[in-house]
Amino acid sequence: MSPIVDPRSRFERWFPNQEWRLLILLAIELGIFAFTAANFFTTANAAELARLSVEIGLLALAQTCVIVTGGIDLSVGSMMGLAAIVFGSLWHDAGLPVGWSILLTLCLGTLGGFLNAYLITRLHTLPLIVTLGTFSLFRGLAEGLTEGIRNYTGFSPSFLFLGQGFWMGVLPPQLVIFAIAALAYWLLLERSVIGRGLSAIGFSEEGARYAGVPVRARLQLVYTLSGLTASLGAIIYVAHLGQAKSDAGTGYELMSITAVVLGGTSIFGGRGSIRGTLLGLAAIVVLQNGLRLSDGPAELVGVLTGLLLIATIGAGRISFQSEQQEAEVKNSQVAVLSAVIIAGALLVAGSNWWLVRSIKPSATASERRTVIAMMPKAKGDPYFVSCRIGAEEAAQELNVELLWDGPTDLDPAKQNEVVEGWITRGVDVIAVSVENQAGISTVLRKARSKGIKVLTWDADAQKDARDFFINQATPQGIGNTLVDEVARVLHGKGEFAIVTASLSAANQNEWMKYMKIRLAEKYPNVKLAVVRPSDGDRDRAFAETQTILNVYPNVKVITGIAAPAVPGAAEAVKQSGRRDVKVNGLSLPNMCKPFVHAGVIDSIILWNTKNLGYLTVAAGVALHNGTLHTGVTQLTAGRLGTLQVDGDEVMLGPPLIFTAQNIDQFNF
Amino acid sequence: MTGRYGREISTAIALAAVLVAVAVAAPQFYGARNLQQILINNTPVLIVAIGMTMVILVGQIDISVGSQFAIASVVAGLAAQTGVPIFIAGLAGMIAGAAMGVVNAALIAGAGIPSIVVTLATMVALRDVLRWTTQGRWVQNLPPAFQWAGFGQTSGEILITLITSVLFLAVAWALGNLPAGRALYATGSDAEAARLAGIRPARVVFFVFVVMGLLTGLAAALNAIRFSEVQSNAGAGVELKTIAAVVVGGASITGGRATLIGTLLGVLLLGIIGPALTFAGINAFWEKAIQGLIILAAVVADARGKARARVVPNR
User: Fold this and answer.
1) By the 8 A CB rule, do B110 and B206 touch?
2) How far is CA B126 from the centre of its chain?
3) Rounded distance between C-alpha atoms, residue B6 and residue A637, angstroms
4) Test mutation, A129, A499, A664, chain B, max B CBs within 10 A
5) Nearest CA in chain B to A544
6) Residue A4 DSSP one-character state
7) Could you tell me whether strands A401-404 and A649-651 are parallel, antiparallel, or unpaired per DSSP bridges?
């Protein structure tokens, strides 16, 4: 009996879905970043890169199998959120040992995955709809169970080692787990009868059934595995950040799908490989990391990812079509196309390289300038945009290089990623507005241990993770002032409502905590009627305020505690014609000016954001050249004059209250 | 009972159930002003959902509408800032939307790349391009005539409702009665059969994505004129809201089956949940979970209906 001969060449067998394109792409990326990115080719950076890709990588592995069957799982990111807080509460509230908590969390993930599987297979509903439902359901349960506020920290070092440590000095432990998972998924999808069955289902469910594939059982398997893998990802995520919160994994479903699709897996099912997914993942992660280390703008990541997706999939699509047409010119066509893709990739990468070069100052000419890396909580937030203006001003005056980078989206893990990038790149001072205290403190400590000076501004980290905190106002001070302003408008008696950012926003929850304390202590007759979320969206704040006004006719003050929420609430009050209701809160003068003059907004509270940015850079320089150190009580900061230093905190001064009288003096 | 409009009926039942529950728990929900406001607030989502219904009808999907919405809002705002009439500014927003639609359309219908891949790419890329150019800044200092297009609040609200209603009715009629509308159903049901019947599926798909962009631009412009400033991150999550509404409204995600009535029911169902829960005094923390449950309930109800329908002929 002669062995079955695979008609495909060795090359085709290795790259059944043209994964070689990704390999070339990756090589180009690596080649370019080797020149442009500082300390790109170092073991430490490789380890960090690997570490950062594990969570999304796990989701992408599971997603590959799902997509190969022609389905999709949108619920994986939400499942991470649910699994993270369940894990935290099992360990913290129920007092279970970490091992048992992990086991039970994995069971929960399996159960959640099975819920998807059950609804899809038993009810013959499409995966997109079912997982869209559970996408809301899982995240909603996570938010409901924690009331958005509670989060779990203080995990044992042995558990945190899983996400933050190194084996033998170089190997991140979660990478080992990921490698095992990748191997298991590879065996399942590409080396087993089950995997063949999954492909068959993807090509034609009906056909697979006639061929004897147990379609229902196979589909149940992939969705259940997807839930299990997501909960495993959640545990690693918690160990990585040191914090379990309901917003874990926000947006990860799309990132995992992007990696899978970029990896050549057909979105219609049938074709797909784990190899491709790993390469797709690597292409995205290397791009992000390389751009950061080259000081390129973070927004380029999205633009380039989009272009790469279209270029690689488009080329694959066209050559696939030409194969089907069995045209004689097939090979040459493919060759031309490949050349076009490579040229395109080179063009994109080259222009990027040029951009990076042109942005970078000619460091060789003079001696190296001090590099201060400054991070907002969110780059697009108007509040931070105005902080940046002051920071740029100080950087110019003091002749230092300012790097400004941070999360563009809601991903709470992003801040860590950026700081890791800066450590690798090598900067002199890191200044962070902290979103996630427990999570970021670990990586800030690492920065300090490498000799980088660390500041926090706007929101503090754990005290031992930074040298100084630029204190514009304490949460307690903000909470008290907000409540005092409400009570002033209400003359000490009445009801008010709060429109916050998102329900899990750490700062806002902290302020509300102190607001409630202040209310209980000082204003027994002022009642907080309701708290509604706006998700940082002016339009949502508008609609929420309308509803509040309809439901609670006794509410006379709406307090917005996110910059876009105040103008949103003000517009709603204005349109309602209710002259007896006033809006106040925390926002930027420029956004609120018209409403303040129209008498809808009574007052807004804020510190001078430009000065905050200015002071942060000035303090960074002082810290670097040694004029700011433990024990000093004063700091001279350029145009701000001499400011008080209280222990390890630099004080900006009291917050400003903007009213119709003074708001026109400010422009930010 | 299920018959031709089975999906729409189960969505209508779900909507009715929510409305009855609200009537019991919080009757003050039925204040005229409140209903008016909910309606107005949902017009942008409805307009985008009309486009999404057509996209899903031809068996495609567009997840870039949120990013398109944000860009069209900013374009309309910037145009208004130059002092051109508000009507022209709105048109600029629509043209921007249509232009983005053309990009999607060319890649999907022209190059044959799957729509989910193309729109995933444009979603990410367009959002980041906007972030890069605006750096989060809002469009402020607009002329006073920007808000309500200079008509004042009451007339402005009527105008927006009127435009949305006319659009809804026109598209509903066109889908059912015009050859072009039937071509959408034909393409979505079976592109090959449609081709043999003399329809050019690629052209239909191209047209649908351009219209999708145009409608998103219109929705963004109508949304923007309700305010006196344009925010730079408008339309966050619009893609999920509209896809959920269309699908809950009974459209088949594989194409060939969708009605605008179903979409309207879907938009109303999902749009009412938030305010209704506030009226019922339920904590905001549970809102997303309840929203998920309602989507799943509509799906389950429909599946059970279908299962029963399947059993009947066998008896």
Assistant:
1) yes
2) 19
3) 70
4) A129
5) B275
6) P
7) unpaired
In the block, tokens 């949305």 appear at: B164
- For chain A, give the percent of residues with pLDDT over 70: 89
Cα(A190)–Cα(A64) distance, rounded to whole angstroms? 11
Strand partners, A601: A583
Please judge whether A551 and B112 are an interchain contact, meaning their C-beta atoms are less than 8 angstroms apart: no
User: Are the Cβ atoms of A143 and B288 closer than 8 angstroms?
Assistant: yes
Which CATH code, of 3.30.300, 1.10.3470, 1.25.40, 1.10.10, is assigned to B6-19+43-307? 1.10.3470
Q: Between B153-177 and B201-224, two packed helices, what is the crossing angle to 10 degrees? A: 170
A459-502 residue pLDDT tens: 888 889 999 999 888 888 899 999 999 999 999 999 999 999 88
Least confident of A58-72, A424-438, B151-165: A424-438
d(CA B30, CA A349): 58
CA B170, B52, B7, B279 torsion-angle sign: negative
pLDDT in tens, B230-270: 998 898 889 989 999 998 888 888 888 899 999 999 999 99
| Whole-model pTM over 0.95 | no
pLDDT surpassing 70 at residue A340 = no
Residue A388 with chain B: CB contacts under 8 Å: 135
Decide if A540 contacts A534 (C-beta within 8 A): yes
In angstroms, the CA B21 to CA B36 distance is 20
Q: Does B257 touch chain A (CB under 8 A)?
A: no
CB count in 10 Å sphere of residue A94: 11
Residue of A82, A86, A115, A125 best to disrupt the B interface, most CBs of B under 10 A: A125
Predicted interface score ipTM higher than 0.90: yes
CA dist., res. A423 & res. A466, Å (int): 14
The answer to whether the CB atoms of B136 and A385 lie below 8 A apart is yes
Domains and CATH numbers, chain A: 54-250 (no CATH), 371-472+610-653 (3.40.50.2300), 475-606 (3.40.50.2300)
Q: Does B36 touch chain A (CB under 8 A)?
A: no
